[in-house]
Amino acid sequence: MTLARYAPHLRATLALGLPLVGSHLARMAIGVADTVMVGWYGVEELAALVIATSFFHILFFLGMGFGIGVMGLIAAAIARDDQIEVRRSTRMALWLSIIFAVLVTPLMWFSEPILLAIGQEPVVAALAQDYLRIAGFGLLPVLCGLTLNSYLAAMERTQVVLWITLAGLPLNVFLNWVLIFGNLGAPELGVRGAAIASVSVQSFQLVLLLAYAAWLPSARKYRLFQRFWRADRAELKAVFLLGLPIGLTMVAEGGLFVASNVMMGWIGTRELAAHGIALQLASITFMVHLGMSNAATIRAGQAKGRGDAPWMRDGAITVTAVSFAVAVLAVAIFVLFPRQLVGLYLDASDPETPVLIGIATGLMFYAALFQLTDAMQVIGLGLLRGVQDTRVPMIIAAVSYWLIGMPIAYGLAFGLGMGPGGLWLGLVAGLTVAAILLMRRFWRGFARGDWTRAAQPG
């Protein structure tokens, strides 16, 4: 066994994964730009944006399973040159994305009573509803765009996904500047302006994706948009059963971090601010692992489509090693330069800054622990999605995050009085259990030959 054996897999993994990493970082940058620019506008508006985007993302997580789940399905169909299956699965994923967006839009339109019921201030809840009533119209283009991203990525056109995502960043900043603050003669709309900017960018990106998918010569044989209105009940059911568990898994993981924000707020405002800084730094490195996870899904799907066990094994080892190496590098940076990283988020002249740096620097140790387990659990999920195994991973995620991670976090933080550090140790515990069980499931299934013979989605 030589390193040369893995060189083709390394090149292919990086060619697929790095543009996807860039796409995820660009999306994150758009969210950061929204937060910063609304923060310049007003404190209440910023609080409303934070709670509104959390509300939006919970619904987005639930609906994104169809677009993510179809990635491995398309990759497998392309690998076995099944043009009909590529068209059927992509179309029905688009159908499900549209149906889901339409069904949940009323929740955003009438979100104020929901936000009041969970204890938000009346002013914040009202502003958040103003935002969501506009931003809700962006859910459909976001979910459909995610499905088209998967379609193009499965054809190894990830560079296009990156450039289209990047194109949205300057447009979003410009529209925010015009509409939030009322520049260039536009009305001053505050959070509503941020929402209009977001929907405009999301719609613009969807138009570009649709145009490229329709134009791409190598994709014309799939006839994706020909008689798009025709229902395919069997495939609709298959994609639904594949995608729903992924959406529920995303909600379980996203909900874990939302709950950690709430519990950190119980400890104190300074602790919550420091927690937010440490969590965002960890989120930046997570985008790298998420891009590699998407590459793992495509590569595993391709191997499944061909029934090529050695190719699947070597590809899985390679993507795991890449993500592990990035995690080790992140651990070193977080341990060696915590104060410098935290300081990037804070005003040195603010009298609160030394206290926040002290708290956040302590949390960076736990953020370092976070890296290896977070990387391995998301790579495990990516590999399993590639082989169309989603139901059991959903159960593993729910148990690991909510029956193990959350009780440990609460018990250490409040029961044993460890505070913020205890809360983060609980997150590490939940993610560690998930990483071990997900990786174990993939490799045990591989050893049995489950992933390289014909199987039903699920």
From TrEMBL:
Transmembrane segments: 55-80, 92-111, 131-153, 160-182, 194-217, 238-260, 272-295, 316-337, 357-383, 395-416, 422-439
Pfam families assigned to the protein according to its UniProt record, in alphabetical order: MatE
CDD domains linked: MATE_NorM_like
Keyword annotations: Antiport, Cell membrane, Ion transport, Membrane, Transmembrane, Transmembrane helix, Transport
A molecular function (GO) term: xenobiotic transmembrane transporter activity
Cited InterPro entries: MATE_fam (IPR002528), MATE_MdtK (IPR050222), MdtK-like (IPR048279)
GO cellular component entries: plasma membrane
Keyword Transmembrane on entry: yes
Record localization: Cell inner membrane
Protein topology in the membrane: Multi-pass membrane protein
GO biological process: monoatomic ion transport
Top-level division of the source organism's lineage: Bacteria
Protein name (record): Multidrug-efflux transporter
Biological source species: Paracoccus lutimaris
